[in-house]
C-alpha cells in the first residue's frame, strides 16, 4: 500500500470495514483504498482470530459489496441518517 494513514484515518477505515452496512466502495471513495487493501489493513491491525471472524462475516455479504446488493443502495448514506447542513446542529 502506497499511502500512509494517520491513526484517526486508520481507525475510521477499520470502523467502516467492521460495519455491516458500509460497502467497500464507500471506503474506497473516502480513503482511496480498494477492497483488497482494506483486507490487508484489517489483517495487519487485528488479532488473527478477529480477522478470521470478520472475513467470514463479510465475504459475499450484499451490504458490503454494492454490486451484490439491490439498487436501493445508491448512496453511501443510510436513509435514517439526518441531513447535516453547514455543520450546525439542528435545534428541536
Notes on the protein architecture:
The protein is mainly alpha-helical and 92 residues long. It has a domain at 7-68. Helices cover 46% and strands 0% of the residues. The protein contains 4 helices and no strands. It has helices spanning 7-18, 24-31, 35-45, 48-58. The longest helix has 12 residues, at 7-18.
Brief synopsis:
With 92 residues, the chain is mainly alpha-helical.
Main β sheet profile: none
Strand content: under 5%
Helix content: 40-55%
* Number of helical stretches of at least 4 residues: 4
Number of beta-strand segments: 0
Q: N-to-C SSE series?
A: HHHH
Stretches where pLDDT falls below 50 for ≥5 residues? Answer: none
How many angstroms separate the termini?
45 Å
Mean pLDDT: 78
Radius of gyration: 15 Å
Give the overall shape, derived from the CA principal axes: globular
- Secondary-structure-derived class: mainly alpha
Biased composition (Basic residues): 54-67, 74-92
Protein name: TIGR03643 family protein
Region (Disordered): 54-92
Organism: Psychroflexus torquis (strain ATCC 700755 / CIP 106069 / ACAM 623)
Features:
about 90 residues, mainly alpha, about 45% helix, about 0% strand
Q: What does the secondary structure layout of this molecule look like, with pairings?
A:
Blueprint: H1 7-18, H2 24-31, H3 35-45, H4 48-58
Helix pairs in contact: 1-2, 1-3
Protein name: TIGR03643 family protein
Region (Disordered): 54-92
Organism: Psychroflexus torquis (strain ATCC 700755 / CIP 106069 / ACAM 623)
